Amino acid sequence: MTHWNSLRRLIVGSLALLLATAGTPAQAAPPLEQVAAHLKALDSLTADFTQIADTGAVAKGRMTLARPGKIRFDYEPKSPLLVVSDGRTLSMVDYDVAQVSRWPVKETPLALLLDPDSTLKTRARLTPADQTPRGYVAVVGQDPKRPEYGAITLYFAQSAQGPAGLLLSGWRVLDGQGRTTTVQLTNVTINPPVSKTAFTFRDPRGAPTARPGKLR
C-alpha cells in the first residue's frame, strides 16, 4: 500500500468516526460553562496537528480555525488530501482521484468546536474527574442510545494563556469497535488574523492535477 493510500485511509476513517458521533446528551456543570466561555472568546486559532490512529499510522499538518464554523486541515507537504469547512459544509478533497466528499458541519461532532453556541449544551457532557488527565478539562460527545456510534472527546488544558483559563490541546475519537484516532495540537495561537480565502479550495473535478496548497 502506498504512503498516500495509508494516509487517505487514516483521514477517511477519522472523518467516518466523526460523522458517526453526531448526537449527544446535555449535562451542564461549571467546567462546561468554562469551556463555553473559552469557545465564545475564540474567534480564530492556528496550530500544528498530529493525527494518530490506533494502528500507529500518523499524519501531520497545520490547522486553521475561524468562527463561525470554519476550519482547515492542511496535511503534510505534497499530500493530495485536504479537509476544509466553509462555515456550513465540511469537505474532504482528494486531488489524486479528483474527488470531493461533503457533509453539513452541524451534523458532525466538529460542531462542538465550530458552532458551540448552538451545540455545546445539547451535544456535550463533562468526563468524570477521575477519567480526565490532571490539569485538563475534557468534554465528550456520545449518544447513549446508539453506543455503536462511538464518541468524541475534546481536551482543554488549564492555562492562563487561553481565554477563560483554557487552551484546546486536541481530541480523541472512539468508535463502536474500540478503535481510536487522536489529534494532538501544538504551537497553538489564539485569535490570529486569518484570511477569508483560507477556507476556499480549487475543486479537483475541474483541475485534476491541482494540489491543495493552491486556493481558488
Report on this model:
The protein has 216 residues and is of the alpha+beta class. The chain has a single domain, classed as Lipoprotein localisation LolA/LolB/LppX (outer membrane lipoprotein receptor (LolB), chain A), CATH 2.50.20. Helices cover 19% and strands 37% of the residues. It has four helices and eleven strands; from the N terminus they run ααββββββααβββββ. The two termini are 31 Å apart. The protein has an eleven-stranded antiparallel β-sheet. Mean pLDDT is 80; it is low at 21-29 and 208-216. Strand 2 (58-66) and strand 3 form a beta hairpin.
Short structural summary:
The chain contains four helices and eleven strands. It has 216 residues and is α+β, with helices and mostly antiparallel strands.
Provide the structure class. Answer: alpha+beta
The number of domains: 1
Strand order of the largest sheet: 6-5-4-3-2-1-11-10-9-8-7
Instruction: Give the helices and strands as they follow along the chain.
Output: HHEEEEEEHHEEEEE
Alpha-carbon distance between the two ends: 31 Å
Q: Could you state the oligomeric state of the chains shown?
A: single chain
**CATH fold-level assignment:** outer membrane lipoprotein receptor (LolB), chain A
Mean pLDDT: 80
Defining traits:
216 residues, alpha+beta, outer membrane lipoprotein receptor (LolB), chain A, eleven-stranded antiparallel β-sheet, 4 helices, globular
